[in-house]
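> agent: user asked for a holo structure of the chain below bound to NAP. Plan: (1) validate sequence alphabet, (2) canonicalize SMILES, (3) run complex prediction with ligand conditioning, (4) return tokens. Step 1... ok. Step 2... ok. Step 3 dispatched.
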Amino acid sequence: MNVFITGASSGIGAALASAYASQYKNQGLNIGLAARRSEHLQKLKILLETQPNIRCYIYPLDVRDHQALAVAAGDFIMHAGAPDMVIACAGVSRGTLTEHQEDIAAFQAVMDINVLGMVHTFQPFITAMREAGGGQLVGIASVAGIRGLPGAGAYSASKAAAISYLESLRVEMSPSNIAVTTIAPGYIRTPMTDVNTYTMPFLMDADVAAQKFIKAIAGKRRFVVIPWQMGWLGRIMKFIPPVVWDWAMKKAPYKPRLDWDWL
Ligand SMILES: NC(=O)c1ccc[n+]([C@@H]2O[C@H](COP(=O)([O-])OP(=O)(O)OC[C@H]3O[C@@H](n4cnc5c(N)ncnc54)[C@H](OP(=O)(O)O)[C@@H]3O)[C@@H](O)[C@H]2O)c1
């Protein structure tokens, strides 16, 4: 089994890598781990390779850099072969407000990482996957992409764009036997949500979520919200008329506008 994951240094990506390593320790797994923080990737590689038949390849890179991803993909394919699965999990979330000029750079970064980063991740693998007879591309979107959340315009817009992009890709890839799965998580306990001071309904631990993601991926689900309770909320959210949405969101908590040194 060959799996390539971005956003593997933390949270959901790291939990997915660990869960796949446990699942495939008998059959064998080649896993590509990409993110910016190389020391986190290195630690994860050491941990995963303590299990038999697990081979990790680490790629410290920024998903905004399409050339870096092309080099990483080339290296992974050379060592492991075409991936069975590419999971674009890298993402950032920060509060943004359009009235602040300093947030323009934040809008740019969130869109570049969460949307273009996904394109950069999939693109260099598609030819090899097609030649190998197929595979699966998985994009981690968010419930925040179903409707616009106040205080999170950049994040909501980026995840709405990701959902639409993945839907286009799903149809485009189908003749090549490459399945596309969109996962829209609700609240998962990771460093991304640790900063939230408000109540997060149906909050789920990352290792529990990873098992549910893996089941959805194995079932080649086209679009899935996890946890399922959020799925029902998401369905309702989708059909609420704008006037009701505006009223419901009046008292919604805003994601904090933190410092931007991570840009
Ligand atoms: N946690 C939730 O409740 C939740 C809900 C809905 C959707 N999601 C989505 O799930 C995905 C994973 O989030 P998480 O909760 O696991 O957050 P996290 O713990 O903060 O992990 C984010 C991951 O993305 C990587 N990343 C961020 N910017 C990057 C860049 N420019 N280049 C390469 N890698 C980058 C980070 O690694 P480096 O910093 O080392 O680069 C890290 O590995 C994200 O797409 C997020 O939007 C999360």
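> agent: step 4 complete. Summary for user: Strands lie at 2-6, 29-35, 54-60, 85-88, 135-140, 178-185, 188-189, 204-205, 223-226. The domain at 2-249 is CATH 3.40.50.720 (Rossmann fold).
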